Amino acid sequence: MREGPTPTDPSGLSTAVRHALGWLLFGNAVGIYLSVLLLDPGWQLGAWTYGRWVPVHLNVQLFGWTSLPLVAWLFSIYQVDRSRLAAWGPAAVWAWSAALAIGVLDWLGGQTSGKIFLDWKSGALWAFTAAQVILWAVLAAAWRERSAYWPQLRRAATLAGLGGLALVPFSLVFAASPKVYPPIDQTTGGPTGSSLQGSALIVVGLMLLLPRVAALCKDSRRRPGIWIFFALSWIVFGVTEAMGGTHHDPHQIFSMLFLLPWVWWLPRDWRRFEWPEGSVAWRGAMFGWWGMLVVTSLAMYRVGVLDRIKFTQALVAHSHMAMAGFTTSFCALLIVLVTRRRMGPPSSVALWHGAAFAMVLVLAAMGWMEGAHPSWMLASPAWRELGLLVRTACGALMIGASLLWYLERRKS
Ligand code: HEM
Fold this sequence. Notes:
With about 400 residues, the protein is an all-alpha fold.
């Protein structure tokens, strides 16, 4: 199929990558500042309390670092940089970052909905909604121009994608509303097993989609099994989510067990595809963290375990395993795939994963100790101070790696 004229400068895509790495750097800096405040609260800056910096750290890592590589991926799928509206690509990214910056000022000003990762409220919420609408309009305009050159199946799939993306701004406004809450585990106040399975299945879906959109398949034999199991997993999620329950209920554990086969099945599925140079380390790290995440989540979602580690550093360990480990690897891999360039020197990749793993181990050990007896709250025992110190040191190594990545991309 003949392709249309191709403008040379893929600026929208590289702008999204640069902004993503900039937000990662800023998010890590806030993370280090938080860890210093836990060691010595005397470092507080005026009214900007610890509680006001936490949503900044979380939301910048989610809506800045984790989201913008996905935006770069969308730019490559919808060929925004090859369309007549290429100049609107960087504009959409700047609108996204401007809305996030407004959010940061809001959260430091104490303006938050109080919902984790959904702190968007009033002006900041509408600024971010406007940024999403601008992005959607740029993708739709690019689709309208570029899809004339695409095969029928790709045209239909990307149009359906646009339909799905159109729901995102509305679902964020809905989910950020103080009146809306997901089902919770009554005994821990946290998510149910089925909710955890549901959110993980979205990630599984992305990992099934990525090789089929961004890599070349070496083995064209049909393998329906993986899709049948994916569909079955969603049915199990639907049924157990409707039933609700707690980590005492076998059906909630049963829904979590449906995640285990993906530890083996996804890496096996990815081996059927050809991957660009510079991606092997990130693919290996991503599946390493994924396996650890699924297995430890199953071990945590048990009576006597979850009850002990709830509200301790062990859950912070879990969050960093999920995001500083797994999603960071997924996002870095995306950047390698859409830019066809490596993400930092190999030593920086090893530095990031080594430090993140050490941070997770220390936080998990601290959490287990904290869950044993609350006396640490009054005494600040040496083991805890040492743990907080090690976490800060790990953070310093991680910010070093992310600075290298940012500087390497800023030049291009
Ligand atoms: C320089 C590296 C980092 C440091 C020093 C750091 C430090 C921290 C600190 C001190 C907290 C608050 C913990 C508490 O309230 O007890 C935290 C929470 C969190 N961080 Fe980081 N962080 C870093 C990197 C990251 C990255 C890269 C991500 C995501 C991509 C991330 C995601 C999170 C999340 C989701 C939480 C909430 C944990 C919870 O409440 O369960 N962090 N981090």
